[in-house]
## 1
Amino acid sequence: MFHGSAEGLILKIVTYGEADLLVWVLTPEFGPLRVLARKGLRSVKRFGGRIFLFNRLEFDYSRRRDDEIAFIESARLVEIFPGVFTDEVRFGRAALFAEVLLAAWGEGDPAPEACGFYLEFLRKLERGVQSADRFVLDAFRLLEILGHRPVLDRCASCEKPLDGSKMYSVNEGGAVCENCAKDEKIKMTGRGGTLPFAVTAAVRKTVEKSYNTDPGHLDRLKFSAKARVEAFDLWIEHIKALLGRTPKCIRYLSEFERTSKRK
Ligand SMILES: [Zn+2]
């Protein structure tokens, strides 16, 4: 029997059998760790309310063999984010990033940067201080943490200068010159997948600038309302290419972002 302890943020919980809970915790050491809380639904003494979405926990676990699922033995609360549940937009943003992290990060791959980023993200949502612009820039930071920072200062395919090209290819991972866009369109037509499309210079420049800006100063970067929608659509295309599907939380979030009066 192996015993260990870890600290992390709960990304997903599903009930398992009668009263057990299957829990995905994002940990710095092991990335998303899947653990089973036996009688997690009922055992007040052992878990009493601590197994809850987005909670930050310290927990002890055990497992019989390396290839078997770990069981949570006990858990202590480190931080909670009740404010995230008071507002559909906050909840939708937190759930979307959790879904993307779970789908894109391999279990067992250390994730200290992703953990630190997601913790800061939850804290901002909790305090209600995240603007719509900052959310989109954070989404692009998440893309960078996942190892897919878009190439924006040269052609992502041939590396030559862009020379005014507005074309963008999620398959190449960034802006592309007119020639590479044409070649890709010919190659990809009829095969499915996203063809190169035009992206306005304002979106490209603001996103590029955000990667060269200290995170503490990112709130100073602004999109126009139109550019923000375009930038978020661009991000969604990247995530679709990365996951091979549209995240479930996108539709949920878009609904509330559209009807929300807040900036
Ligand atoms: Zn090119």
## 2
Amino acid sequence: MESAGPFVTVAVGRGKYRRWWETVSRKVLIAYGTKNGSTAEIAQVIASVMRDRGLEADARAAAEVEDVAPYDAVVLGGALYMGRWHKDARRFARQHRHILAERPLWLFSSGPLDPSASERDLPPVPSAGRAARRTRAREHVTFGGRLEAGAKGRVARMILEEGRGGDYRDMNKIAEWAAGIANELSVGAQ
Ligand SMILES: Cc1cc2nc3c(=O)[nH]c(=O)nc-3n(C[C@H](O)[C@H](O)[C@H](O)COP(=O)(O)O)c2cc1C
């Protein structure tokens, strides 16, 4: 392996391929704030789509991530509760705002317990919008949520008793969004 300037020349098989390692985003963190687990599952789907496209992707609870520096790009998601982005997502965005502003960053929220998020683009709630501005996120998207038997909290039980629960996560839309991010991150990899 020989190197010249920002390029590293790697011998692969019979040919030599140049890879511009500096500009290629390869290791992606998908951090999430969740109460009942459905946002964590969305993060896992995003990570899996990215791995299928050759990226290294870690889906981790936002509260457990201490250092963002090892990652080249970040996706940060939070469940919506009472019109607010989950506190772990808010805290993560605040705590790591400087480094996040230097990384390619995408945000998502998951919440609506109806088909609205699949039918149109829903704007971020104010706390997610603030985080997007502070961290200079490239995009924010809202996905539908899930609320099912066993969810924590009195209000959750009331919503379920009223028959207003269900799973409104659109896995195709989530996978498409993740694939779009993977494409953006792979530009320059060829
Ligand atoms: C008490 C309570 C409050 C909620 N508030 C909102 C809300 O303000 N906006 C919204 O879109 N969804 C709201 N939801 C729906 C949740 O965001 C949805 O169930 C989400 O998928 C939960 O994510 P989690 O499983 O990761 O915690 C609420 C649900 C509960 C139980």
